[in-house]
Design brief:
The structure holds 2 protein chains of 2 kinds. Chain A is 32% helix and 27% strand. By secondary structure, chain A is α+β, with helices and mostly antiparallel strands. Chain B is built from 2 helices and 9 strands, in the order E-E-H-E-E-H-E-E-E-E-E. The radius of gyration of chain B is 14 Å and the shape is globular. The chains are: A alpha+beta, B alpha+beta.
Chain lengths: 485, 136
C-alpha cells in the first residue's frame, strides 16, 4: 500500500489540497482536503487521510471525497469527511454518517448582558444542570410508549410544537425544519425503539455539552444582527444527538449491510465502510431508519432547549428585563441527506454523507429561512470547553467546492487515554475556574478527556475554512458555564 | 505475555482494545472483561448475581465478536448488568450464551457501539488476537 505524505498532494491553493484518483488503483474519485499546510501536516500524523482515500473507493461517488481541516481518525470514514453519491448508481453508507446519527449543535441568542447576568450565573448553572439530564446511564424524565416513539420518528422536533417553551421560529430555524421526510419506524428494530424510549431529552456524555456563552467579538454586524448576536450578550449552545436510539440503528444496519456488500459485489478496503446501493431494499431501509434517528435527535435538542429556557425563566425572570432565548440555528453534523448541488455544471440531486462535518449552505439556497437568505446559513463551530466557539456563514464557494459543507469543530489531537494520562482533573477544573468558566461535570475523568489540550486549535481550523472561502466569520463566543455529562 | 489478555490501544477519536487468547471462547471472555474495564464499571457485590442467557447468530469470527459485545452493551444500558462466567453452545442457527449477571453500580464512560473498523481475527503462535474499535 502506498504511503501518504505531503508530496502525495497537489496544492490547489493555500487551503486546498488534492490526492488524484490515480494515487491508488481502487480510488474512484480524488480526495480534496481543505486545510492550511500546518493542519494538513498534523492530519498526516493519524490515519484520517488514508480513511478518506478508503472512502473514495465507494461506488457512485460524485466529484471528490472532501475532508475538512478539523479532520481526525474515525472508523471507516474520517471524522470531518463529506462524500456525495449519485442517487441512481451510488451507495448509502451508515459508516459515512456515524453511530450518533444527527449529532448536532443548536445555538440560542439572548439580549441578556454579562453585567445583568453575573450575579445569577452560579444559580443558572445549577438549574440548567438540574433540568437537563446528563451523564452516563442517565435517562430522561419520561419513558415513551411505542406509539409515542412512532410519532417521534415521524414528526421530529414538531412533536414538541405545543410545548409552552417551543417558539414558532425554532422549527423554521432548524435544518430541514426539524423533520426529515421519508422516515419509516417500521424499518427500526424493536431493540432500537426500546433504547430510545428512555433517553429523549437527555444530553448524554463524552463530547456532548450545554454551554452558556458570551459573545466576545463580532466580525460581521449585519449577519450577527440577523442572528440576534450582539457583543457582550449571552448565548447558549446545545451539543447532542440521537443517543442510544441512533447508535442501535447504525449498529443494526452496519451488521445487516455486511451481507449486502457481498450480495451487490462491492469490494471495500474496510468493513466499517459497508454500504448498499441507494436504490436497493437494504439502502432504502437504512435511509428510512436513519431518518427516524435524525428526527429523534432534532426533537432531543428541542426538548433540551425548552428545559434551558425553563431554567433561564426560573433564575432570571423578574430580575433581568429580557431573559428569553431565541433560536439562531440547529445543524446536524452526522447525517446523510438528499440535496440539490451543482455537479459538472448541472444541478443534480445527490446523497450527501456528512460525518463530523456540517451543512453550510450559501446565500440564496432553497430551504434557508427568509432572514438568512441574504447572509447564508449559520454554521456553528464549537471549540473545546476552555476556548471559544465560532459562528460562521456558508458561502457560494462552499456550494460549489464541497457540497455546501464546512467543519464541525476543533477535532481531536490527543486520544482519550493520552488526555487522561497527561491532564490532571483537578488542575484542569481549577484552570477553567480561573478563566471564569463554571463547569458542572458528571465525571472528572470524562472532563479530562475533553480538555482543551486534547483538541486542535479551533481558531486555526476556522482560518482554514475562511481562507478556502467556504465560510465567513460572524462572531466568536466564549464559555461562561459548561454542563457536561 | 499471558496466554489470555487485553490492552487498550491508542485511537485519536475513539477507543480500541487489543484482545488475545488461546481459543475463540476465551477471546470472547477477554473481550468482555476488556469492555467493562474501558467503561470503568464498578460492580455490586457477588450476592447480587443472576443467570442471564442470550443468543447470537452464527457468522464469521469477526461478526460473532461484534454481535457478542453489542449484546453486552445492551445489557449494560437496558438492564444495568455486567456479564461474566460465560459458556457457549453452538446450535443449528445460533450460539447460545449462558452467563452470570452482576449489577453495575456506576460506570465512567459510555461506549456507544462496537465497530467493524479494521476488524481482523489473526491466528498467532499461541491462539488468536484481534483489535476492536469502539465508538465512544
Amino acid at each position: 500500500m502506498s504511503t501518504i505524505t505531503e508530496k502525495t498532494f497537489t496544492k490547489l491553493s493555500d487551503y486546498e489540497w488534492e490526492i488524484p484518483k490515480d494515487f491508488r488503483s481502487d480510488m474512484r474519485v480524488p480526495v480534496r482536503v481543505f486545510a492550511s499546510q500546518a493542519l494538513l501536516q498534523d492530519a498526516l500524523k493519524d490515519n484520517s487521510i488514508e480513511q478518506a482515500v478508503n472512502a473514495s473507493t465507494l461506488p457512485g461517488l460524485v466529484e471528490a471525497v472532501m475532508v475538512m481541516p478539523d479532520m481526525h481518525q474515525g472508523y471507516g470514514f474520517p471524522i470531518g469527511g463529506v462524500a456525495a453519491t449519485d442517487l441512481e448508481t451510488g451507495v448509502i453508507s451508515p459508516g459515512g454518517i456515524g453511530y450518533d446519527i444527527n449529532c448536532g449543535v443548536r445555538l440560542l441568542s439572548s439580549r441578556i448582558t454579562l453585567e445583568e447576568a453575573t450575579p445569577f450565573l452560579s444559580d443558572l448553572a445549577t438549574v440548567v444542570d438540574q433540568l437537563c439530564p446528563s451523564g452516563v446511564g442517565v435517562g430522561g424524565r419520561k419513558k415513551l410508549s411505542n406509539a409515542e416513539m412512532v410519532e417521534v420518528c415521524l414528526r421530529g422536533a414538531n412533536w414538541a410544537k405545543d410545548d409552552v417553551y417551543t417558539a414558532a421560529e425554532d422549527l423554521r430555524r432548524t435544518e430541514d425544519q426539524g423533520c426529515l421526510p421519508g422516515a419509516d419506524p417500521g424499518k427500526v428494530s424493536s431493540r432500537a425503539m426500546e433504547r430510545g424510549k428512555n433517553q429523549l431529552g437527555t444530553l448524554g456524555s463524552g463530547n456532548h455539552f450545554i454551554e452558556v456563552d458570551l459573545v466576545t467579538e463580532v466580525f460581521d454586524e449585519v449577519a450577527a444582527g440577523a442572528m440576534g448576536l450582539y457583543r457582550g450578550e449571552l448565548a447558549v449552545q446545545i451539543h447532542t444527538g440521537s443517543r442510544g436510539f441512533g447508535h442501535q440503528i447504525c449498529t443494526d444496519y452496519v451488521r445487516r449491510l455486511q451481507s449486502a456488500v457481498t450480495k451487490y459485489g462491492i469490494k471495500l478496503p474496510d468493513k466499517q465502510l459497508v454500504c448498499a446501493p441507494i436504490t436497493s431494499d437494504e439502502g432504502q431501509d437504512y435511509l428510512a431508519a436513519m431518518r427516524c434517528a435524525a428526527n429523534y435527535a432534532f426533537l432531543n435538542r428541542q426538548i433540551l432547549t425548552n428545559n434551558v429556557r425553563q431554567a433561564f425563566e426560573t433564575v432570571l425572570a423578574g430580575k433581568v428585563d429580557r431573559w428569553q432565548l431565541r433560536q439562531v440555528y440547529d445543524i446536524a453534523h452526522n447525517i446523510g441527506k438528499f440535496e440539490r448541488h451543482q455537479v459538472n455544471g448541472d444541478q443534480k440531486m445527490v446523497c450527501v454523507h456528512r460525518k463530523g462535518a456540517t451543512r453550510a449552505f450559501g446565500p440564496g439556497t432553497e430551504g434557508l429561512p427568509t432572514e438568512y437568505q441574504e447572509i447564508g446559513q449559520p454554521v456553528l463551530v464549537p471549540g473545546s470547553m476552555g476556548t471559544g466557539s465560532w459562528v460562521l456563514t456558508g458561502t457560494e464557494t462552499s456550494m460549489l467546492r464541497c457540497f455546501g459543507s464546512c467543519c464541525q469543530g476543533g477535532g481531536r489531537v490527543l486520544s482519550r487515554s493520552q488526555a487522561k494520562r497527561s491532564i490532571w482533573d483537578e488542575t484542569l477544573l481549577q484552570q477553567l475556574e480561573q478563566d471564569g468558566i463554571d463547569v458542572r461535570a458528571g465525571s472528572l475523568p470524562g472532563l479530562a478527556e475533553e480538555a482543551p489540550q486534547a483538541y486542535k486549535d479551533v481558531n486555526q481550523v476556522v482560518e482554514s475554512v475562511v481562507g478556502a472561502g467556504i465560510a465567513k466569520k460572524v462572531a466568536l463566543i466564549k464559555p461562561l458555564i459548561v454542563i457536561k455529562g | 505475555m499471558a496466554l489470555n489478555g487485553y490492552k487498550e490501544v491508542e485511537h485519536t477519536a475513539d477507543i480500541a482494545l487489543q484482545v488475545w487468547a488461546r481459543d475463540f471462547p476465551s477471546l470472547l471472555k477477554q473481550a468482555a472483561e476488556g469492555l467493562y474495564a474501558l467503561m470503568d464499571a464498578v460492580l455490586e457485590t457477588a450476592q447480587s448475581k443472576t443467570h442471564q442467557n442470550f443468543t447470537i447468530p452464527h457468522g464469521n469470527h469477526e461478526t460473532v465478536v461484534v454481535d457478542f459485545l453489542t449484546e453486552l452493551l445492551f445489557f449494560v444500558e437496558e438492564k444495568g448488568l455486567a456479564l461474566s462466567d460465560f459458556s457457549f453452545e453452538n446450535g443449528q442457527n445460533e450460539i447460545s450464551v449462558q452467563s452470570t449477571g452482576r449489577r453495575i453500580l456506576t460506570w465512567e464512560r459510555d461506549i456507544k457501539a462496537v465497530t467493524f473498523h479494521d476488524l481482523n481475527l489473526e491466528r498467532t503462535a499461541t491462539g488468536f488476537s484481534i483489535t476492536i474499535t469502539f465508538d465512544v
